Fold Gfo/Idh/MocA-like oxidoreductase C-terminal domain-containing protein.
Amino acid sequence: GGLDIDVEDIATATLVNEDGAFALLSVDYLQRPRAFYIEAVTVDGGWYRWEFCAKDADAMYERQMARFVALCEGDTTPDYPNLADGIAVQEVLDEVSCV
């Protein structure tokens, strides 16, 4: 693969909620150019796309550094996931089976 670490280069999972709603998750570290977005398609035909990172990958790291500096300067705005959020995500990942 394209990564020098022991992870899947491409992974896809289908998640089904208790009420029948589902989500298709996909991670692709090989895709070029890189893309950072979320797409949602609704049952009534709606389609939404959120690009949460600029085309320039450096922008993501620059925002992270700016946030780190703000935290060091005492900013306590809770705009990032907390430990409970991380545990919840890990519980979902633990349920995803690899084939």
Summary: The helical segments are 57-72, 83-95.
